[in-house]
Amino acid sequence: MPITDADLSAFLSSIEGSSGFQQLTDDSVTEELLTAQADYVNGLPDFRYRSLRDGEIRVITFEQGGDEDGPIRLRIHHVRTSQCKEEDGKASDGIMSYSALSYVWGTGEKKTPIVINNCSFAVTSELNNALLHLRNYTTVNSALSKSFWIDAMCINQQDAREKSIQVALMKSIYETAFQVIVWLGEETPNMTKIVFSTLENNIVLDPSNEAIDYELLHRITPQQWFMLGLDIMRRPWWRRMWVIQEIAVAKRALVMCGPHVADWKKLESAGIWAQMLNTLAYFHTEEETARGDVYLPNVRFKRLYRIKIQTSRPMLLLELLQNNVSCKATDARDMIFSLVGIASDVEAVGLQEERVDPNSKRQLICDYNQSPEQIYTDLVHVHASTHNSLNILAFNSHPKDLALPSWVPDWTSVWKTCPFILAPVEYIDPVGPTRYIYNASAGLDLDFTFVGNDKVHAIGIHFDTLRSLAEPFLDCHPPGETFYRTLMAWRDLALGEASEHEDEAYIASGVKSLAFRRSITADQTKYGARVEPDTCSFDPLMCFDPATNSFNEFHRHMMHDSSEHFRDSERAVYLRISRRAFFVTEKGYFGIGPPGGRDGDCVCLLGGCSVPLVLRKVREEWEVVGECFVCGIMDGEVAQMGEKSEVFVLR
């Protein structure tokens, strides 16, 4: 459907003097319809599941002949997975074809009754909205599969054993589906239609399209285009952990937002194009978009994951976890279960005894009877044993929300820092191997032992001790006054500190200046690529002299410097220092590390961990505080210094 002048005028009027976002909510479904559904369902018996046999899944279909404005009425069927195929959307010769729904459950605070097999069943209002639109869409699209797999109904959510078995089949369920339907939620008045019309007509990809009124579109400013894109990209679906796998394995996908539908490939391509608005996103929107690694890149991540799966390239679990640290799951266990199905280095198994191999190092048992703490601890065991590596320890943050040993990462923690350990997925070759960009422990002995679920014994080196820590940079907004005042304080600490052991670190002031600049970028570009030490630059900061210039003058100069090189450098610094603290060690080394660090904490290197760790001694044992970057020891230099190794007991 083309964009009309009326559509554009309505959009421009809707955002004038407002944020522009007035997305329709559950209340978009009329109270009359909800009342009708409740009246219809009232008195029906509650739906009860029949147990699944081995190799079975459930699918649902809409009952035929009902009122299109009436309550949702469904039939549920048991089918064998061997009966399902994805080649076309029609069932034939006993073959079942189905579409799988990818959506956000919602809070569950508001339930809506529907009918399944003439029995009452409660769904979230978000799912009820999706079902209403699916029913309408299937009615007018005869080629679309009439059967659907939707987890809230097709898995008995009250049966932990069934959930554990089915979750291990999730990858197969979505990759076997005829198509995956992405439900983004209800439309935003005056905005969503323009976005989907843009996608439908390939406006971004085909500027020669004669059917497009470009004079009309040119009335939309870049900022307003970004708001239109954000109407889609800021929706909760992009932050849900399970959708990573659901879209990655899909043979084909449709995107639905209210009554609007678009092919996933068009949205994917538009997301790549939207990278050109990254600077606008970085400096003119809220935290997540400003950081540039939650919404638009989520399209890129999903595209790269699809490429890797389609080309049978490996995807390591740490890579998946690192690139999706901002995503969420209602159940803490799903932070792991949602990804192990597509990870190439860990095998997800359910509770089927015939699949569980007690001698396998790669198997992670998906068991909803186990606590999140146990699942997270098991993951460290599996990953460390599979790779003969302790790199997973670098994902620890301090403090934790769950009751875990210090060496077990808490994947539920609100952690928006860009980790040091891996090269970001948008930098690496999408079909190439995962790369570790540092190798600080090169040359160290590799020997570690797990002692139950409580402790790890690991060989490493106590290299240095934190002596002076600056205040961490915790501001959640794009670079502004707080950002620059923080860097000034860090710079003064770095260049003003004297050390008894400075000859072991950075001797000349020029070297100290370079070491500071390297530290605040962690030797990385804004994309996370490793750079040569002498190419690190953020010169305006280093040239500022408070004796001759006021901070306000300096800040105004910084905010008005629009050169690409400066903005790239600024972004590289911003991404590395966010939620980190600058420190100087006893030996005079500079670094950035976890905000929970303290004077007296130790910089240690453990065999098998690619980055240094900040450890805290507690009596005769050690706690993991978090990873750190220390300028001058990130490429195996410590092993060449002849430092004495020791056994660390991590608690």
TrEMBL record:
Q: Identify the InterPro entries for this entry.
A: HET, HetReg/Transcr_Mod
Q: Tell me which Pfam families the record gives.
A: HET (PF06985), Het-6_barrel (PF26639)
Using the record's annotation, list all stretches that form the Heterokaryon incompatibility domain. Answer: 98-246
Q: What is the superkingdom listed in this entry's lineage?
A: Eukaryota
Please give the name of this protein. Answer: HET-domain-containing protein
Q: Which organism is it from?
A: Melanomma pulvis-pyrius CBS 109.77
The taxonomy runs:
Eukaryota, Fungi, Dikarya, Ascomycota, Pezizomycotina
